[in-house]
Specification:
The structure is a homodimer.
Chain A lengths: L4 H17 L5 H5 L8 H13 L3 E2 L8 E2 L1 H11 L7 H10 L7 H16 L3 E7 L5 E10 L2 E8 L4 E7 L6 H14 L10 H10 L6 H14 L6 E3 L14 H10 L2 H6 L10 E4 L12 E10 L3 E10 L4 H21 L19
Antiparallel strand pairs in A: 1-2, 3-7, 3-10, 4-5, 5-6, 8-9, 9-10
The first copy, chain A, binds a DNA duplex through helix 3.
Chain lengths: 359, 359
DNA sequence: ATTGGCACTCAGAAGGAAAGAGTGCTAAGC
DNA sequence: GCTTAGCACTCTTTCCTTCTGAGTGCCAAT
């Protein structure tokens, strides 16, 4: 069944008002809007019909209406109007984007904190592998008597290292030999292809440095098997700033007992391929503890074989348009930064205006 | 003024009862304890005196007593009885201690989660430098055309790396030369001793690889300047499980607005040299937002030049004895793990930072 | 010095009345 | 036939008031 234009307008108005007030919306409030030209009685009739259709709900008989999950979904898919970031907002986002650290994990964690601060809601970031990783290059560096640094470069351009301490000391040339063997036999293999037999073979041909081999392989396997980087979840407490959790601390607690880092790290898999942004509205979430909770996720590019996700967690009554706009801005600029490569601050972004702002 | 033995016994009983019930303690409840052999009237008299001395407080005229901050302090310093971990508790602590990751930062983060889970309170971990760090060893590895991996070993046994991408390609021998120059002139220097002039000098003598030099030095400086590792703060939501925050979500929010990672990372400086454990009881905390919040911190050893801190945040009414026991157990075993730090499971400091940011 | 007894205090629970916001429906108006 | 004003009705919320009970402080007796 199709909605009339007026019904769409009313639904949109109700979502907009409810999002900002967190109170059920009455017919009077809608009628009072400048671009609504009919009386509250008419609105009441339409509201009754929208309720009939399952797009609105009534907390109790004599209260205003609030959007139902289906109502939110319709709003997101069809009615939501692009939110335009104000100049002030763009400016503070830009200031925020001057990341300090050069280390990837720290950057991701900083980004999460930023997003959380800018949206005033809990946020997370996570990096996910797009395809299976393989080792690209091994190096063994002598760092002192009995101290060896293993450096491992993966196909997704990640570099991992590990300091290994051995009771016996190994000669420089032995290390070279082992490194050569590793590079010859352990590169370009996925985690499954690395077997016990292979380990034996390597150990045999590795010469005096062979005690190192199992340690190297363990570490390599650990690195290859990581499907995603750390989940950086921050600002959980900000959920309490939302009226729906004001006097329901337990609920907020429950949310994050359910939505733990494990669950979050699996969320990117839910994202459809056809767009960078995805909404999980209330009960669309798998777990019933999250029935009043929504998640907005946005994908962004991190070079080779990796993709990043930033997400925001909030009550179902959430300013989807605004959050989407902010996340989009982050995602876009992070993508640029990672592509260009960010040694310094994001150069293109520091001037305060985005190209798209030009009239 | 000295306390009589009986007064001490009563104060201890009141703290113990209050800690477990979170309700003001009445004279009857104390008198009912098996090892108390006087009547409630006597207790009342003693309680009046303890209140006089500022060790107890009365929420209102006709309520029981609760310990004052000074009362908690006295309890911690003199009256607290060692809590003995039960077999069950030790067992689950042991199970928990089987850390999965080999990377240092991930281990610290895991430890934090564990501590939080085991104490059912927010917890944090942080690694701090004991002394100023210097670079010990540089290595430059060719990872592909225009891709160079910088490996940097610090005096505290941390290993950092960074993937650098250059538009031009550099020959293997040029890299060797630059590495040699770096090892000759940039090692054993503190961050202050690394100056612009030095950079110029290095750039001059570095030959064709000289464009790399400033990037290397930037990164080195960033690493050296880090006084402490990431602060891993987790389980904030568990604070809401405490009755004092049940209907005061804002308060909980305030706590973590004040006690952010910045503040936490500076807490270890407060620890006295003479003991591994430190209590910050309510108003002893600097910020007034934390006047009802206590922190228990415990130090532990991580090899060379580094020290770890694990901390637990909770309401002033906190089971100091139990928390201390659990933290102690963690600290002891983590210390062992890090010291052993040989080849087996939990390794010496390994910085698993990946450096997939590109140049 | 300790204890039983008793009057007194005060926070929190329980009950109830009044207020207010919003609806659904009906009948009149364009 | 759609829209609107009017009105009775429903329920939540709020504000009082009352009541209950835990706990104290003090006094007199042991």
């Amino acid at each position: 069944m199709e909605l009339t234009d007026r019904q769409k307008q009313i639904l949109r108005a109700i979502v907009d008002i409810y999002v900002s007030t967190a109170e059920p919306v009455g017919s009077k409030a809608v009628a009072a809007l400048p671009d609504v030209s009919c009386s509250s009685a008419t609105i009441r009739n339409e509201m009754a019909e929208l309720t009939q259709m399952g797009l609105l709900e009534q907390p109790h008989t004599s209260a205003g209406r609030i959007p139902s999950p289906a109502g939110y979904r319709l709003y997101i898919d069809e009615l939501m109007q692009d939110y335009r970031l104000s100049l002030d907002e763009t400016r503070s986002l830009n200031e925020a984007l001057e990341l300090k650290s050069q280390e990837f994990d720290k950057m991701m964690s900083q980004v999460g904190k930023l997003v959380s601060k800018m949206t005033d809601l809990p946020a997370y970031t996570v990096a996910t592998r797009r395809s299976e990783a393989v080792a690209k290059h091994f190096d063994l560096i002598m760092a002192g008597p009995g101290s060896i640094i293993l450096v491992l470069m993966l196909s997704d351009d990640q570099v991992k290292n590990k300091l290994i301490k051995l009771p016996v000391s190994v000669s420089e040339s032995d290390l070279k030999l082992l490194a050569a063997v590793l590079n010859a036999s352990l590169t370009d293999l996925t985690a499954e292809e690395i077997t016990g037999e292979l380990l034996e073979k390597i150990t045999r041909s590795a010469g005096p440095a062979s005690p190192l081999a199992p340690l190297v392989m363990d570490f390599t396997l650990e690195c290859l098997r990581q499907q995603h980087g750390d989940v950086h979840l921050t600002g959980q407490m900000r959920l309490l700033g939302q009226p729906e959790y004001k006097d329901a601390a337990e609920k907020a607690q429950e949310v994050f007992e359910t939505l733990d880092e494990d669950m979050i790290s699996n969320l990117p898999a839910v994202l459809p391929k056809d767009g960078p942004v995805q909404f999980l509205v209330g009960p669309e979430n798998v777990a019933k503890e999250l029935k009043d909770t929504s998640v907005v996720m946005m994908r962004f590019d991190i070079g080779e074989g990796m993709q990043g996700t930033i997400g925001v967690v909030g009550p179902t009554r959430m300013d989807y348009a605004k959050i989407t706009a902010k996340l989009g801005y982050f995602a876009e600029n992070l993508g640029k930064m990672f592509q260009k490569g960010g040694t310094a601050a994001p150069p293109a972004l520091t001037d305060g205006t985005d190209a798209s702002d030009k009239e």
